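Board work, copied verbatim: Branchpoint-bridging protein
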Amino acid sequence: MEAPPRASRWSKERYTNLLIPNYIPPELLLYDEGQFLKAFLLRVLSIDLNRFIETKRCEDYFINIPVEPEYNSDGQRINTPDELVAEKRRRTMDELTNILRQNAEMGPNPTAPKEIVRKRYFSQDEMDNGAYGAILGARGLVHQELEQKTKCKIVLAGRGITNTLKDTSTNAARVALEEPHARITAPNEQALQHAMERIEWILSDDPEAQEFRENNRKRMAQIEGRYDPRTWVSSLEKDNDGAPKPGEKREREEQLDEDVQAFLDEL
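↓ predict structure ↓
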């Protein structure tokens, strides 16, 4: 003997909601992090629950969902199908309203905060003495530290800096014709001000800044194998024409020669 057909939780009458499509593409999960699809399904559920209430068939909703009756002290049932369906519809509408409110607060087309771009152009003296190189530092360590501390993106570019043979970007040729500069991209004015102050200090005539640049020059020369303490000429000596002329010995070398000569005389 065949088992009787399982009762349906829906009414026996044919029901079609023409406002709801019969196919939902899975790509909707990608739109707005799935919030659109969630709101859509909540709306569908609220419409169906409202249909149960209006047709006074709330008990059909629980055909396959057994509900144990609960009564109060007066013997009245407190979890009737009508009350349960109405409560479920209220919760559904509250959740849907919350999603719509959050979307309204974000705006129709939320955009990321606009970044601030500023250029600090290098003078001819800063290019000639290579002071701008201290912004990069040996192996780019100073540049990395600057970006981490200021939360800005700092790019050195322009004539004499951008190498079109190494830089294959589409804008490399155009940027190579610009005046040499440091382009600072900051998330806000405070970060931009911080980055500008640090760059201005590195390029300034402050004794500590000069020592900072000189240490970077030495470190880069050591990495590249160009550093020799016997012949090294600091930037300050170059600016003051303190470098020895061809055939002229530096003070340290003269002192070494005197010590060697004194040692030979003692022999």
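Residues 81-106 form the longest helix (26 residues).
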